[in-house]
């Protein structure tokens, strides 16, 4: 059996919502309970994959029911949560940075091992108020890196191993080329701040058709475009043909809509496919 890692690069803003409001935000994004990191729940991703296959193959196609199962019969592939790996953050020093932290990298390393993929990259260990960037990155000629309202001391380190392992999760060559110059690794605690408070909040409104006055104003949170997630597809016996079918479909149409707000263009991700070796689970 070959487990698979799906790379999901946000092409538009994402809104994997939750039913619970949080403070002044009426519709926050879903977060992991412990770490507070934005997450696309496995059930939501599985539903998006099913909708993707149904639109191409048809709702009653046997390949769809075999993959996802029926109410009384489980499907042949387990779909995990899509986990955050890189989060864009505004920078006063230059173009935005993709920030991540040692914990997310360690988790990605373990997930690659589970999928039977090589995981030999070294995880940087930034100190507090320090950002590790790739050796040779200019950073505007400055020793400090400004992310949102926080200032970090820059430490340069060879991150080519990390960048090579990220590249397989990104469909576009142009985006892969930007990774060395825009990647920044910060501490777990400081990354948690960006994950909790660094997302965009949009105001939306419903107007009365006649008076044009507000009938309903609400605030909703979104995950920015260019955020990078990944998820595992773990096969069960008999899943080889089903996974091959899904891979073929993504080869023809490598984009997937996940989460809410599809009618306002949100939730679109480009998809890549990393397949582990036989027996990697």
From TrEMBL:
<protein>
    <submittedName>
        <fullName>CRISPR-associated Cmr4 family protein</fullName>
    </submittedName>
</protein>
<dbReference type="GO" id="GO:0051607">
    <property type="term" value="P:defense response to virus"/>
</dbReference>
<dbReference type="Pfam" id="PF03787">
    <property type="entry name" value="RAMPs"/>
</dbReference>
<dbReference type="InterPro" id="IPR005537">
    <property type="entry name" value="RAMP_III_fam"/>
</dbReference>
<dbReference type="InterPro" id="IPR013410">
    <property type="entry name" value="CRISPR-assoc_RAMP_Cmr4"/>
</dbReference>
<keyword id="KW-0051">Antiviral defense</keyword>
<feature type="domain" description="CRISPR type III-associated protein">
    <location>
        <begin position="11"/>
        <end position="270"/>
    </location>
</feature>
């Amino acid at each position: 059996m070959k487990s698979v890692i799906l790379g999901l690069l946000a092409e538009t803003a994402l809104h994997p919502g939750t039913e619970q409001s949080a403070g002044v935000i009426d519709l926050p994004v879903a977060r992991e309970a412990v770490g507070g990191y934005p997450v696309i729940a496995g059930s939501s991703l599985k539903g998006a994959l099913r909708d993707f296959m149904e639109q191409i193959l048809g709702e009653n196609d046997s390949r769809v029911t075999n993959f996802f199962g029926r109410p009384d019969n489980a499907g042949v592939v387990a779909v995990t949560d899509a986990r955050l790996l890189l989060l864009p953050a505004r920078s006063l020093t230059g173009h935005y940075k993709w920030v991540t932290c040692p914990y997310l990298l360690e988790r990605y390393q373990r997930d690659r091992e589970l999928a039977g993929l090589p995981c030999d990259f070294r995880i940087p260990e930034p100190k507090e108020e320090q950002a590790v960037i790739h050796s040779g990155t200019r950073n505007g000629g400055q020793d400090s890196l400004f992310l949102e309202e926080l200032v970090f001391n820059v430490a340069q380190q060879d991150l080519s191993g990390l960048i090579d392992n990220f590249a397989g999760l990104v469909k576009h060559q142009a985006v892969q080329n930007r990774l060395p110059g825009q990647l920044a690794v910060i501490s777990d605690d400081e990354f948690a701040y960006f994950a909790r408070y660094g997302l965009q909040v949009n105001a939306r409104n419903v107007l009365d058709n006649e008076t044009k006055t507000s009938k309903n104003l609400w605030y909703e949170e979104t995950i920015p475009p260019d955020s990078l997630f990944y998820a595992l597809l773990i096969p069960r016996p008999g899943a080889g043909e089903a996974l091959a079918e899904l891979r073929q479909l993504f080869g023809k149409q490598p984009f997937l809509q996940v989460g809410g707000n599809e009618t306002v263009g949100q939730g679109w991700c480009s998809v890549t496919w990393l397949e582990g070796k036989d027996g990697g689970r």
